[in-house]
Amino acid sequence: MPKHVYCRHRSEILVPFFDVDAMHIVWHGHYVKYLEVARCAFLDALGYNYDIMREHGHAWPVVKMDLKYIRPARFNQILHVDLALMEYESCLRLDYTLSDAASGEKLTRASTTQVPVSLADGEMQYQTPDSWRQAVRRFTGYRPHP
């Protein structure tokens, strides 16, 4: 059974010289930064970025991350980072596909999971804040679970 995707977002990243090694291949640790850039662009588009999360009294630490490297990204390559929101009511779970913008060739697959933590007491929340859920439901392209 296919997984439900609540909404999607695409970001574009140009691989800078300082992210590559002597072979002009992106060092594996920089992919985490690319995920964060795409996630921040999505949250901005959603109208519920990290500043707003903090205003609503929550931090959202990453508690799980998975990356699968398929092909290396290279210096000056334009990457598409396609993000899919997979869960938003109990946590923020995103799936990512990084691909070459010119050819569409898949380079990396990844996923991250973040949970809301109360800034007041440091306690992890087992349900995301209502303000977050409302923001997701207002997002253009939101698809409710059937």
From TrEMBL:
This is 4-hydroxybenzoyl-CoA thioesterase domain protein. The keyword Glycoprotein does not apply. Belongs to the 4-hydroxybenzoyl-CoA thioesterase family. GO terms for molecular function: fatty acyl-CoA hydrolase activity. Keywords: Hydrolase. InterPro entries: 4-hydroxybenzoyl-CoA_TE (IPR050563), HotDog_dom_sf (IPR029069), YbgC/YbaW (IPR006684). It holds the Pfam family 4HBT_2.
